[in-house]
Amino acid sequence: MKKFACIGLALALLGPEARTAEAPFVQTAKTWWAFQPLKCPPAPGLSAGVPIDVLLDEKIAAAGLKKAPPADRTTLLRRATFDLTGLPPTPDEVRSFLGDVAPDAFARVVDRLLASPSYGQRWARHWLDVVRYADYHDADPKARAASCEPLEAWRYRDWVVDSLNRDLPFDQFLAHQIAGDLLTNYTNETSDPTGLIATGFLLNGTWDRGDADKEKLVSDMVDDQIETVGKTFLGLTLGCARCHDHKFDPISNHDYYALAGIFYSSHFMENLGTKGGEITLKRVPLVSRSVAALRDGLVLQLESIKTKLAALDKQSPRVAADHPERRMLERDRDALQADLPPPYPAVLTVQEGGMPGGLFPNFQDVPVHIRGSYTRLGPVIPRRMPAFFAGNSQPPITQGSGRRELAAWIASKTNPLTARVIVNRVWQWHFGEGLVRTPSNFGLTSTPPSHPALLDGLAAHLIEQGWSLKELHRRIMLSAAYQRSSAVPRDQTAQDPENRWLARFSARRLEAEAFRDAMLFVGGRLDVALGGPAGADVGTNRRSLYVQTARWDRSNFATLFDAANPDASVEKRTISIVAPQALFMINHDFMQTQASHFAQRLLRNTSGDAAARIEWAYRWLFGRPAQPEEIQIAQHLLAQSGGSEIESAWRDFAHVLLCSNEFIYVD
Amino acid sequence: MSDSHWIPHRCSRREWLARAGGGFGLLALTDLLAGASPDPVSGVTAQPTRPIVGSLPHYVARAKRVIFLYMPGGPSHVDLFDPKPRLLQDNGKPFPLEKPKLERTRTGNLLASPWKFSQHGQSGTAVSELLPCTAACIDDICVIRSMVADNINHSGAALQMCTGEQAFSRPSMGSWLTYGLGTENQDLPGFVVVSPAAVFQGAQLWASSFLPSSYQGTLIRDLSHPIANLHDPSGNLARQRTKLDTLRQLNDLHKRSRVIDSELEARISSFELAFRMQQEAPEAFDLSRETKATHRLYGTDHPTTELFGRQCLLARRLAERGVRFIQLFDAPKNNVWDQHSGLREELPKRCAAVDQPIAALLVDLKARGLLEDTLVLWGGEFGRTPTAEGTNGREHHPFGFTMWMAGGGIRGGHVHGATDEFGWYASQDIVHVHDLHATILHLMGLDHTRLTYHFAGRDYRLTDVYGNVVHGLLA
């Protein structure tokens, strides 16, 4: 019953009186910061210069904090490279940056990194956390049923990567995910399917696949769509209004069903089928109709033969193996199987027009479901946007589902939430914490921003710059705040332990994906190719983005290192440090293999001098030269492991460095 | 909380505890490093093998460890431990008192329990027919019928039950206890969580939050492979030790100039814990070492009771080995005790799955002399409404519900507190979650007002600013 999670939190904050008849928060909501138009211009000169630091410095001074000095250039390059690409810098890149004394040296580094295809791979992962992306429900390909599995979900993931790399303006990026099928015209296999693909966003949620009650399943899917759209783009917990008016935000139960009508008027399952039977998510073939129909026909024939064979097996007495009927069926089956063309590509997508075979099979407004249940229906609510935000005199939705209108309303420059929410997320992904620390909830129970003017300024800037995320990255990364050292005297951290005022940078552990990719990268094995289906094996050389995320598998590498749980939208990852991670580090075959690869590469690329080899390792792994004390420690290990002439000694050395805190932490 | 005299003087108690990751002693840890060499950070040579147990207790502990049998979703008190004749009498009639403002959804009329209660043991405590085995142990159990909590939703209520706080990230009970007391076993995690499936709020329920991260619970999902990667493929532990010593040296150099040293240190000690787990854990987790009779006792030989039976049996093995806090979630999937509907069918299934294993655990602990210093706690985040949700369900109910305790320092065969005649409000000797926490710490020898951690300018406690020890529960 997680739908109600938000209520408990709010009750805790506001106390029981919050439940009384006329919600007192409606008044509060009218002046709530997040619901106000952007203060534009929020600070003089915002669009002209870089006022990020001006706005931060005010608060740092007010808190009586001393700013940390700029990070040294090696640290800065390692920070920026991991931040934008999820990979470490090469020693050559370090050398070239250290030698570049031009004032715009770092700006050019940022441009170079933003232009790398690895940027899209890295930042897509952030986005996938928020949109509860999974490649599959079931980790086991053999056990994977077609019903409700988000088959070929990777097309959506690849679209996200590509959109980020192309710097698709964020307003279009979001509009496509809600209504891409309506924004691009897909007619046949020669036209552009990206609009269809983008709507995969709406179909990659969690619900019971075997729910015998199809109507309930549909209502749960609609709920997932409303909830995910609300959290992801608006920072609103819209799902809270499923059974009753939202307890703390100005979203009524009627608002919810006004939105629900939009999704009920969309078509996202093939059809409801029979009670208890399997259902299939809506997919559109990316081949011509005739090609698809041919194969579909063959598959049907094959299934019918298999059914007949199964029936024979069940007969008693058993039908003999050489019985003519059985022989004929088997012959047909084998022939069909041999002729069957490979599965054609198809895209998981939402279409228009309601769910055939269900309660709401057309474009239509839907009634309130009393307490969330389709079995008790209340008044029909015309489709529209939430009244508090979009007003009481909205034009009626007369054509299509209304997804186009929904997308336009969210992507509008005047929507007070959209730009603020994405700017805050991007800030969080750069600094570790957002200016608002509840990035998917900007409602009345959230904590207001630490720097309201900065948040508004950046949001206005984003819109001004045509919703360009790459421009936003540049703006943030060129601030002095981003470039500060994370090392400050201890008494200063005590003054601001959570680093709310950003007088220093926060050092961070690498995420599971970046950590794994970095190990493959320094071993010279990382395959940075873009796109395609995910593999199941952590041992592949592909980037971690392409190692499958399966909802029912929580015992994999990524989960062990705190990757997002795809059961629900994840606004921020937690960090755990536990012995099972260390056991993986010291004993798992993957680690031994990476250590081996690195050692081999080291021996290939360096001369016989042990100190030079140690130096080479330090430059690849940490971007810096080794200190004399470290060389000594390393040589001691090499001696104990059989001497620096032996490859396995270098493997031990590499293994230790890969396990080290310096490798997994970014200052 | 003054520093004990033998703690190296250059290392504050807090730092020292931070280093004692997962209840791991610094002393034993440096001892393992070649020849008890000077600690590279403090420069002090540690004395060998001083026990860290007993370093803190404020007074004599009645219990040394806790086993928390957690039933996610909220088990129905009026169907299990809190019989209400008035519900039978008024079945189907409206609830005559004013319902709380906090109610989550509007429930219907009163719903009598479909199950019979009868009195058990010398104490004559009434228990539902759904829990015959637990009923047989009732003289060891103190039933608290007057629990109250503050949150009507799973997430918030489960957080409160496990951490004392409903909304924000705070250290869990197990983290506080391992922080305060360390562990009796240097080679296993001090705080083990067994949850076959994910539960609401997940890792937040066993998080260390702002306590050093090494105090968070070690989660075990799959009982047949409780701990992955437990074996060095080379089989050469001496070589691994050499590598880990080198790692430690390099990590110490790295840590010197960094401010997040508690996180870095936690990672350092996680490697030491991992090293020892390789030697100790396989034996500790190996249920096949138990006799057939023991397996039968716990019901691991029957599909209904197999999963929770294995969890309980593992809990006993870990308790024997000195693990401080063991938290079992009855979670073949999420939220199985959440009977909004299907009460008549689902509740008996849940009870059948846990009843025999729980009784087996109590009996087995007792037979081994462990029950007297092991505190066993049973319950969920709240109870369920005495009124019906739909025709065959009950809503969330934090206003009066049941939990029970047994073992170390607990007054067995006692019923503490009561709800009103409908089972709605706790009405007598009310025990708030904070009181429960205070009492658990008390039994473990800790004063809940003095077990504190300074963070962000404030001393935090498990019980925040609340909580009273409930002496009526104590033997």
Give the strand content of chain A.
Answer: under 5%
Classify the fold: give the CATH topology of chain B.
Answer: Alkaline Phosphatase, subunit A
Kindly provide the radius of gyration of chain A, computed on alpha-carbon positions and rounded to a whole number of angstroms.
28 Å
Largest interface: A-B, 68 and 72 residues
Main pleated-sheet profile of chain A? 2 strands, antiparallel
Order of helices and strands of chain B: HHEHHEEHEHHEEHHHHEHEEEEEEEEHEE
Q: In angstroms, what is the radius of gyration of chain B?
A: 23 Å
Low-pLDDT stretches of chain A: 1-22
Helix content of chain B: 25-40%
Describe the structure.
The complex is a heterodimer of chains A (667) and B (475). Chain A is mainly alpha-helical and 667 residues long. Among the domains of chain A are: 146-278 and 351-410, no CATH class; 287-344; 586-666. Chain A has 28 helices and eight strands. In chain A, the strands form four sheets. In chain A, strands 1-4 form a two-stranded antiparallel sheet. A two-stranded antiparallel sheet of chain A has the order 2-3. In chain A, helix 9 (170-183) packs antiparallel against helix 16, helix 13 (289-314) runs antiparallel to helix 14 and helix 24 (589-605) crosses helix 27 (647-659). The longest helix of chain A has 26 residues, at 289-314. Chain A is globular. Chain B has 475 residues and is of the alpha/beta class. Chain B has a single domain (65-225, 295-473), classed as 3-Layer(aba) Sandwich (Alkaline Phosphatase, subunit A). In chain B, the strands form five sheets. In chain B, strands 1, 4, 5, 6, 7, 8, 11, 12 and 15 form a nine-stranded mixed sheet that branches. In chain B, strands 2-3 form a two-stranded antiparallel ribbon. The model of chain B is unreliable at 1-55 (pLDDT under 50).
